[in-house]
Amino acid sequence: MAPFRTFHFLTLLCLFGLASSLNVMGQGIYLPAAGAVNRGMAGATTGTAIEAIGSMYWNPATIGRLPNDELAFGFEAIYSNFDVASSFPGAGSGFSEGENGVSPIPTIAWVHHTDNPNVTVGLGLLGVGGFGTNVRADATNPILSPPAALGGVGIGGVRSDAVFFHVKPAISVKVNDQLSIGGGPIVGLGKVTLDENILVGVNANGTYPRGDGTRYHWGLGAELGFHYVHNCRWEFGGSIKTPTWFEPLRYFSEDASGLRRTDVVNFMLPTVLSGGAAYKGFEFIVLTVDVRHFDYTSADTLGDPATYEADFGVAGLGWKDVFSVAIGAQLQLTERLTGRLGYMYASDLIDDSTAFFNIASNLSYRRIPTVGASYQLNEGAALSVAYNYVTPWRATGPYVLPEVGPVPGSSITTELDVHIATVGINVRY
User: Which residues contact 397 (CB under 8 A, 6 or more apart)?
Assistant: First the structure.
């Protein structure tokens, strides 16, 4: 058994190295679910143990309720449609389509029951969020025309790329037959690149410095959860992810004369509170519900006011706290085939008044219907698939210029919808 576990642990490390080069996107920064099983149930697994990835992602206290040791792999392909339209007095109006392409996200979790029947350990290597935008410059679309310093009324092309990962060792302890508690540290790794770094002051010629001269930065946080089995029908759970505090994001760029400048941006991922319940009173059916709160208003940069500083740098993105509700159902259709359905609803991430500042980070949505299934390949292995559709979401607001504020008669509109296909395999041994 030891060589088997060593082989898979090395596999986890190799796949995590691959993941560090990939783009991701989610509700705000955080993805609302992870892995094919959790995706099929719209992420609603805080209150019960379904499989390893969902437990490690939302509530590590539940890993002790999994029936066996488990190694789970998930791979997501996220395809987004992103459009930008704008109008400006005297400059006309225009519409442009982005080309974000497909963002692949691997996710891995491992759960092991120790010799102590009350203690279970786990490890998650998880892509947890980010964003990516790619819209080329367009002289016929005011917002994508050259910046004012170059004779236009726009910002040129919009290109951004942000990726965040969590390495999560965890332990779950059964306090008694009904109650388990669990948690552990969170080690974060992330990077944010911007074609033009609006989060820092402008150069002497009025242009923003480049925001692509940066590296991956380290962060640290923690997670704590509980799981309570009320009876054979009802289960409950809850968890808190603390902020993931990152070292200051440092950027190497050039000033108006081509000489070097170094900029620093403070950044943190928000606190996330999750609560969930599961009902197992029907034969062959599990029903779940989760509620979640993302504390973006307290997160550096993400929640700071979307206003200009004295040097014309933008103080923050002005994100609001997000509340979400997810429901899921798992149905045992045959001895080998399991079906899943889910639905998620979330509150707005940004106001229309801050749409201008979030052209490169439009990550809000309202509704996600989900569907998924698993097929038992043999006694220990199951293959799972899921599909999520993020329904179209639109934000419209005015141009907001330094020392001017909202420009009368101007508008910026961004629209986003997303298709997410996930495949995974769970091996229990």
Answer: 351, 352, 353, 354, 355, 356, 406, 411, 412
CA distance 85 to 418: 18
Cα(42)–Cα(389) distance, integer angstroms: 11
Q: What is the CATH number of the domain that holds 121?
A: 2.40.160.60
Cross-strand bridge partners of residue 47: none
> pLDDT tens digits for 254-313?
998 889 999 999 999 999 999 999 999 998 999 999 999 999 999 999 999 999 999 999
Buried/exposed 14-53: b ≥16 CB within 10 Å, e otherwise: eebeebeebbbbbbbbbbbbbbbbbbbbbbbbbbbbbbbb
List, for residues 217-262, the tens digit of each pLDDT value.
999 999 999 999 998 899 999 999 999 999 999 999 999 888 999 9
Handedness of CA 38, 41, 46, 51 (dihedral sign): negative
Residue 315 · residue 306 · CB < 8 Å: yes
Q: Which domain holds residue 406?
A: 2-428
Check whether 352 has a pLDDT greater than 80.
Answer: yes
Q: What is the pLDDT of residue 21?
A: 34
Q: What is the sign, positive or negative, of the torsion defined by CA atoms of 299, 305, 309, 314?
A: positive
Q: Is the separation of the CB atoms in 344 and 43 below 8 Å?
A: yes
Alpha-carbon distance values, 9 to 3, 4, 21, 56 (Å): 10, 9, 20, 16
Domain count, the chain: 1
